[in-house]
Each structure stands twice: as C-alpha cells, then as structure tokens.
Amino acid sequence: RCMMSLIRGRGGKCPCPVCLVPLTELHDLSKTYPLRSVEEAKEALHTYGLSKAQGEVLLKALGLRPVENIFWIILNSNPHDALSLDRLHSLHAGLWKHFLGELKKILASLGREAEAAFEELITNFPRWRNLNHFKSVINISFTDGNKFQDLSKQTLYAGLNILTPRASPEGYQLLRVISSYLQLDSWIGLDVHTESTLAEIEAELLVFDTELKAYVTCAETSAIEDLKLDWDFPKTHLWKHIVRDIRRKGAARNYSTRPNEKLHGPLKDTYHRRTNGKDVATQILRVDHHQFASKLLRERISALDEHHRIQMLGDNPPDEDIPIVFNGHVKLGSPTQHPSLIIDIEKRNASDRAFQAFRRKLSEFINTALPTYGHQLTSWLTFPADFQIHEHRYLKVNYESTVDWKQVTDHLRCNPQFYGSHGSTTPIQLTAEATAFVRLVFLFRCRIPNIGPMEFALVQPYTARISGPRRMDRPLKLTRVKALPRACSIFVPLSSFIRGAVLVPDSEHQDEYIVVDHIDSDMFLRMKA
After folding, report:
1. What pLDDT does residue 314 have?
2. Cα separations (Å) of 445 from 339, 391, 449, 453, 472?
3. Is 381 helix (H, G, I), strand (E, B) or coil?
4. Is residue 293 within 8 Å of residue 300, measured between CB atoms?
C-alpha cells in the first residue's frame, strides 16, 4: 500500500493511503477526513520541483514522498482510490493480532489457573468442518491469517466466564471490543450486500469506536503492565473506508488476498531449498513447473488404476460404488454393518435416558405425526420387539444460503467416537414460523408397514425456558439456549432439518449453550433474522 500510494508509512503525518486522517486520529472512527486526490499530490510534487523546502512542507503535510507515481501515466487513474481493505492482512492477521496480544497479557495477570481454563475451553471447542481447532494458544505464535480468523471466532466464547466484569474489568471490556470486531468482520465478509447490510456496517463501526475508546480508558487506570494505549496505526482505521469500497468495487472477497495465501509456504520452501539465491524467479518457476507435471502424471496413473479396478469388478460393483441419492435435502451416511432389533437398541442404551421408552415414543410419534406429513394410517401401528432399525452415524444436509441463495452442504456427525462428541447440533423447522435447536442423539432408517422406508432422528431439544437473560448476553450480542433433560428426547423426520449449527456449552450454567453465530455468513444472517 505504501509503495503503490507512495505515502511515508506509519511515520508520516497522514499514514492512511486513502484519506488525509492525521496520525493522532487513526483510532477515532467517528470522524471523517477528505480523500486523497492525484491533483493534490501532483501540485505538491510540482512545488517540490520549484523549491525543495516549500515542497517538502506540503509533501510532509500530505504524508507523501517526493516521487512521481508511475500510475499517473494511466489516464484517469487514482492509485489511492484503487486501494481496498484486505480482510486477511488488515483484520485477521492485522488488528486481531493486537487483540490477541492484549488477551494474553490480561490472562497472564489473572494467573496460571485462568490461562489453563482458557486453554481447556479452546481445546474443547466443538468441531466444525473447515474450522481450525487449537490445543494451545497462550504460548504459541501464529503466522497464518486463516488460523487467526478461526481463533477469533472461538476466543469470545472461551473467555466469557473467565473475563467477567468482577474478575477482570479490562478483560471484560476487551471481550466487548472483540464482540464488535466479530460483528463487523461478519457483516463485511458477506458475499452479497444491500443497503441494509451497509447501514449495519456503518452503525457497528461507531459501536467499535466507542468500545475501543472505553478499553483505552480502562487500560489507562489498570494495574496490568504494558496494555496497549496507542491504537493510532493504519489497521485500526482502514475499515473506515470499507462501505465506500463495497459500493464502488463489490463484496470484500473481490479484493481479498486469501486465495493466494496458501501458496506462500511452497514458494518459500522452494526458495530456501531449491535456489542459489540468484535469479530466483526463474528457478522457482522451473521447480513449480516440475511439481505440476509430477502431479499431472500421478493423477493420470491413479485414473488408469481406477479404470482397471472397475473393469475387474465386472457386473458386481461393491455397495460403496453405488451412489446414494438425497432424500429431499438430506442424506444419511456411515450406516452400521447390520440392522438392529428395536429391543436391542433399548437394552444397549439403557444408561442413556434419551432412549427411555424408545419403542413407545416411536410408536406414538409414527401414529400422531405421520398424518401431518401426508401419510394416512388406517389403524394404530405398534412395533414388535424384533422390529428392525438401521442406525446411521453421519448426515449430509443441503440448504440454500441466505447470503447468495447458492446451495451449501453441512456434514453432521452422530458418533461418540468423533472427537468424543455425542452428536452435532442443528436447527429444525417446527412450524412455518418457528425453529428450534436440537442435538442429534440417534439417526436411523426403518421400514414402516404399509408406507415404506422412512428416515428419522432421535434428538434432544434445546427449548427449555431460561430464567431471565444473563448479564453479559446483551452487550456481547450472544444468543443463549437451554437443553431439555435427555429424557425429553423426541423423534423428528430428517426432512425438518435446516442446517448444522455450533453451540458452545456455558460452563457456569448447566445445560445452557451459546450459539456461535459467526461460524459462517449464513448462520450470522439467520441469527440476525
């Protein structure tokens, strides 16, 4: 940015490459300053050519270097206007790194017990597809912006019951800053924007400005050493221009550096291990070409091996080679090897209260609920002890994203051996107007007499009434739900599932969970609605 705009960097009087905000006002997002212009820069440079003393005064005031910008030769170009906010380096590997540094200082001031509790909560954060999980945070330094982004989504929930207003006023205020940061990051990260989403960004920027100023005030009177008081650096200020960027250039993904981020590692390894440090571009390109050719050969050999394997199978391919179609928008997977008798399922899970009266509850559900789904029953159905049920431990759910209306897929597990999890959490459609969160307990397929094969799930509803909102929920913008007892498990058809969800248990309140609405853009918008 500094090179393209030829500004003097953070040491200049106006370090923003887009506008003329003074160095001492970078932290203040409530103020707006004039945008830079090519004409102003050319005029200052022209003055510098006539008188270096007078020109240097003008250039310093603008934070510019006495160099003619090469982009000026392009008709109607404006390098300052071309620069855009890059979420990866400005936020995830930029501003967030400062918040993480502050968090580590505050946890250290609370003692080893607080640090260990935080690390344990991070380690036990629920698993989710494409989300990095961490076993340690306090004593590890990260360089990958993608890991910083995933860590930011988990830190807020891990610190809720450690950084309370009473235990650590500084830590609590930092959580409020992080909460506003996550709100902004989620709004900015949407792939489709409307006037209402842009208005939300502008409003939340003011909230962030207020919370950050409150944190500085808190840090000034704190006994904790080395808390950051000076937030006057460009990455604090840069998202001041994000709404303008979105209006003029589209969604933030259009100017993100994230797609190329993972290529840095192989290129760095090639530079260190395969070049002599001279004319490195040619050598790196040659190695990259060799690697690409090797991969292409490997893929063609693998395809030939697969072709020969299928030919050898003849007309009797194994079951895994037969594609299973979706039943509506859901698809069961990972079936157990053999079906089980319903009486055996009750005996095998006798210690789990969710399976109490399993056969009776299934019978009542089938007879009362199936007619509402369009299946007419001529008589009351009962299930004998040898009624067969085929258990599954994996569910794939397709749904339409509320962000861009494209199809998205969630992968849900119902397997105690999956990192010790007892089942994924998912919202289900109760009525046309209402939804609820449930935890998967048991996924199965069975054949109903006179109807045919049906797919159901035994779930634990998270619909218990919470006795009043918690003190921290509203300022931190948290959504809280409470699980009913396991004995209150119910059956639901798989077709009622909407999508998967991540819920974090509240360690201080039994059976209460916090919805992680920043897990992806679709969940964020659904929770806002």
Report:
1. 59
2. 9, 7, 13, 7, 42
3. coil
4. no
The set of residues, in sequence order, having a beta carbon less than 8 Å from that of 369 and lying 6+ positions away, is 491, 493
The answer to whether the pTM exceeds 0.70 is yes
pLDDT, one tens digit per residue, over 436-466 is 999 999 999 999 888 889 999 999 999 998 8
Cβ(425)–Cβ(378) under 8 Å?
no
Give the Cα separation of 212 and 148 in Å (integer). Answer: 20
Residue pLDDT, tens place only, 130-139: 899 998 898 8
On whether the CB atoms of residues 390 and 445 are closer than 8 A, the answer is yes
What is the helix (H) or strand (E) element at residue 429, kind and residue range? strand 425-429
323 sits in the region (left: phi over 0; alpha: psi -120 to 50; else beta) called beta
- Distance from C-alpha of 96 to C-alpha of 85, rounded to nearest angstrom: 15
Tokens 């599954």 belong to residue: 392
Distance between first and last Cα of the chain: 37
What pLDDT, on a 0 to 100 scale, did the predictor assign at position 321? Answer: 40
State which residues of the chain have pLDDT below 70. 260-264, 313-327, 416-433
Handedness of CA 489, 492, 498, 499 (dihedral sign): positive
pLDDT at 466: 86
